[in-house]
Amino acid sequence: MKSKIILSLAIGLIILGLYGIADSLSHIEKDLPNIPLAENIAPVVKIKTWWLKEDVQRGTLVKRSDFDVQYLVQVDANKRGIYTDVNINFTSGAVYRQDQVQGTLFFPDMLVPPQHDAYIDVVLAPGQVPYVLSVPAKSVVGGTVSNNMRVDLVALTLPQYQMSIEVGSELSKKARMIGVTPVMMNIKVIKVIQQTQIISGELEPSSANVDIVLELTRKQVAILTVAKRIAEIEIHKSIGDFSAADLKADAGDVLPDFKSVTEMRGNNMVIK
User: Fold this and answer.
1) Predicted TM-score (pTM) above 0.90
2) What residues does the Flp pilus assembly protein RcpC/CpaB domain cover (predicted)?
3) Residues in contact with 263: Cβ distance below 8 Å, sequence separation at least 6, in sequence order
4) Domains and CATH numbers, the chain
5) How far apart are CA 149 and CA 146, in angstroms?
């Protein structure tokens, strides 16, 4: 009988202990903060921006390596007037519109592509003027001419369309007049405009003329204007420092044994 009483007391104590533990756990749960589930947390939105790594000057070429990409938190980006990712189209030949300092937040309207109307004004050096030279595509010697390239201008003193089929002394005299002379050297090309023409019966358009915008002084403009009137102008890609004499030639360089013409008249021989 005594053992039964002891067993009942033990069971009662165990029940009371379990009840106390359960009550303590319920209090702890009430004290815990209400933390939302992970899936209910809104993701942090970031916006792509471009920043200059170094100072740049007006009219210089835009390079992708000039920039750092940073992702700003949406709130910070909005304070700077940015609401979507900033995307920059690195068009070949694009230049900076104005001088900019290192650390500048860059926007697409800060660069000028070659096809933009303001491009020539931006790249033109102070004190220089743009001059449009239109030449046949075949007159561009040494491959394709592109923006910012340096070229040499040479004059053919007797254009082919002026040559005749005359013989004798007149032909000899004209042959001696044929020559190539450098007009200007190391001239900067600002812009190249390729024109095309479609010939009836041909599937693809063919090159007609090339309009090349050159950067010249006013004196050079005057010289080139005269040269266009008296000679045929060819454009050569400049290869750097060399003597102007290397661009000069005449008929004697092509025909070193060129001699006077002999005419036969009846029984007489006349040397011209």
Assistant:
1) no
2) 122-234
3) 168, 169, 269, 270, 271, 272
4) 46-120 (3.90.1210.10), 124-271 (no CATH)
5) 6
Q: Does residue 62 register a pLDDT over 70?
A: yes
Tokens of 10: 């033990």
pLDDT band at 161 (very low <50, low <70, confident <90, very high): very low
- Among residues 224, 196, 221, 220, the alpha carbon closest in space to that of 210 is found at 196
- The answer to whether 95 touches 111, Cβ cutoff 8 Å, is yes
For residue 146, CA distances in Å to 41, 176, 177, 191 come to 54, 35, 33, 7
Residue 96 neighbours by CB distance under 10 Å: 21
Pairing label, strands 232-237, 140-141: parallel
What is the bridge-based pairing of β-strands 232-237 and 249-250?
unpaired
Give 255-259 contacts, CB < 8 A, sequence gap 24+: 255/175, 258/175, 258/176
Please work out, in degrees rounded to the nearest 5, the angle formed at the alpha carbon of residue 232 by the alpha carbons of 228 and 234.
100
Best-predicted range by mean pLDDT (52-56, 114-118, 187-191, 204-208): 52-56
The pLDDT tens digits for 96-121 are 999 999 999 999 999 999 989 899 99
What residues contact residue 162 under an 8 Å CB cut-off, 6+ apart? Answer: none
